[in-house]
């Protein structure tokens, strides 16, 4: 899959037709993996300078590949936020080694802490809270820690389909920010329906969880690709949005774009400025280029160092 032909000078975007969407997309972030990043010749041809780039750490990926990807992104002008999946980190010494490598080779100052998708921990850690309690990120001078959020729940954590355990964990993390100097936010799994997202975010605020939310949005992709990832990632109620689209013959072969869900969330944000979703975080399931192009066409052409 070639990602090399897109150039900013040849693709100046038209003014966005929806100013609420443009405002909502400002300072968006995006997620890459080492193997997808390798297909991009120059990220400066795709992403606004200063865009936060998360580097996903999939089980089996050598730390050397993760650090090399972070180093390359940093050199091209992008603040890097690598994943630290607790269940694939053997012990505190390994965690300290990873932190030191990221800092020493790639000047990394922020991290996404999550449990990780493996069912059996590889060592001492099984939750992101344990990583936080080591104190290693604070000792290393990390400026920002993000944690995972699940608007539609997570059956790895709440087997009964509720959100009680994930909400309790977010409450603990909110308290951690209160009692420490950590700057934190919630980066969520992707979803496709704005209504349950809004309700989930409002429920967090009602419970006193004040961490800003960076809402996960799946970028443009083939419908079959999205359904596959949605099932694999445990996306629940909003999967019906894709299933309904799959039953419409006129839309079946057309690539999905997140236009509707982003527009609805942007409208809600414009009407309720205190709404706790502060940023969009893209999962480029159909490719980094197509996601970046869609974001630019819809007004996400500017980025500045994000403070949340």
From TrEMBL:
Q: Which Gene3D superfamilies match?
A: 3.20.20.220
Tell me yes or no: is Oxidoreductase among this UniProt entry's keywords: yes
Q: Which UniProt keywords apply?
A: Oxidoreductase
Report the InterPro entries cross-referenced here: FAD-linked_oxidoreductase-like
Protein name listed in UniProt: 5,10-methylenetetrahydrofolate reductase
Q: What is the protein's species of origin?
A: Roseobacter fucihabitans
Lineage, uppermost ranks: Bacteria, Pseudomonadati, Pseudomonadota, Alphaproteobacteria, Rhodobacterales
């Amino acid at each position: 899959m070639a990602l090399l032909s897109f150039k900013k000078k040849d693709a100046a975007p038209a003014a966005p037709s929806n100013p609420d969407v443009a405002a909502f997309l400002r300072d968006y972030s995006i997620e890459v993996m080492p193997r997808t990043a390798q297909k991009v010749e120059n990220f400066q041809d795709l992403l606004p300078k200063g865009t936060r780039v998360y580097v996903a750490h999939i089980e089996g990926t050598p730390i050397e590949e993760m650090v090399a990807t972070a180093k390359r992104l940093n050199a091209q002008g992008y603040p890097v936020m690598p994943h630290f999946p607790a269940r694939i980190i053997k012990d505190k010494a390994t965690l300290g080694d990873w932190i030191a490598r990221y800092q020493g080779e790639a000047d990394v100052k922020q991290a996404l802490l999550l449990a990780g998708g493996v069912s059996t921990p590889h060592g001492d850690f099984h939750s992101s809270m344990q990583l936080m309690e080591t104190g290693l990120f604070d000792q290393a001078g990390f400026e920002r820690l993000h944690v995972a959020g699940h608007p539609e729940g997570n059956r790895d954590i709440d087997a009964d389909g509720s959100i009680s355990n994930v909400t309790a964990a977010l409450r603990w993390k909110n308290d951690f920010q209160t009692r420490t100097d950590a700057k934190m936010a919630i980066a969520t799994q992707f979803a496709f329906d704005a209504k349950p997202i809004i309700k989930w975010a409002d429920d967090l605020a009602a419970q006193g969880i004040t961490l800003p939310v960076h809402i996960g949005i799946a970028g443009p992709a083939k419908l079959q690709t999205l359904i596959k990832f949605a099932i694999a990632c445990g996306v629940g109620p909003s999967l019906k949005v894709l299933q309904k689209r799959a039953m419409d013959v006129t839309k079946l072969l057309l690539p999905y774009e997140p236009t509707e869900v982003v527009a609805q969330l942007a409208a809600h944000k414009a009407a309720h400025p205190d709404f706790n979703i502060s940023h969009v975080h893209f999962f480029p399931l159909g490719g980094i280029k197509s996601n970046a192009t869609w974001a630019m066409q819809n007004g996400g052409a500017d980025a500045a160092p994000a403070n949340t």
